[in-house]
Amino acid sequence: MPSIEHIESLGANIRGGNAIARTRCLHPMVNSGTLNKYTHQDLTPVIGTEFERLQVTELLESDEQLIKDLAVTVSQRGVVFLRNQDVTPQQMKDLMERITRAAGSPESSGLHVHPLTEPGSELGDQISVISSEKQKKGGGLTHQLSDVSRFASAGWHADITFENCPSDYAMLKIHTLPETGGDTLWASGYEIYDRLSPKMREFLEGLTATHDAKFFLEEAERLGNPLRDGIRGSPLNYGSSLEAVHPVIRTNPVTGWKSVFVNKGFTKRINGVTRDESDLLLPYLINLVTQNHDAQVRFKWRKNDLAIWDNRSTWHCATYDYDAARAGDRVCSLGEAPYLDLKSSSRREALETH
Hints:
By secondary structure, this protein is of the alpha+beta class. The chain has eleven helices and 17 strands.
């Protein structure tokens, strides 16, 4: 992989980023096709691919090229689904580390430790337990949002964008679920960018947005657990401010495609404009996500299914239409500090030239 020093020399075309967490992926990665031997299907034209009979354990035993192709597939398709996985949390972490490294993550980035992770957690610091039972007791993003809106669409978010060095990839295995309900939706940030007019794209590419999760401070106090204010997987992620500023439009280095990078869960304000203007722009961008079902894919979980997605270029939203227990294990890797390469292209532009 190219050195970090080499990347810093690109300078003039780059907005955002941080020298401590630069991507090692200088050019878009190419899929060599090693995954084609597995039966798979795209679930929609723009987002989501499901593989049949491909096991995480098999991926862990594979060579580096297969892992690279998996990273490219996840980044191009937004989210990949693997059915009926016999996999442990440790194996999930091992695969997550291989994927993020293969995709050129900075040397300084590791697996994320969520600020609300309980010390001494049985599954380790890097595993977040996604549990409807915990949420009923007042924990998690869902509780905070329920006080603000009764619209299910209020749950759309990308993971941990309040960190200075947020997630590149995330992986979730659902092992406990109700007989019906509990689906998850993902939406494509590439597609949302493509739906902007050229003038709006140019305008937004000059702006940043503030993301924060200060409600986690209140939740930590309410739940009686200390906030994890030490280093959370990257030297850029520490302390209790839980606030970061990122470009409104970012480039995914794996694909070289631009994506809208604001979300309902954590983005509080678009900077460089007045509050009134921010209050118009931010809901408009979020409405492009929530009101365009043809930019989304909806996944119906079965027991032990697993999803891997790219947080740089997607949003997701759980469907809380059930009463029975629903639980799973999630691990997030950390990528580069978000940046925009002005020379990068949109998804449609890139595909039309090939």
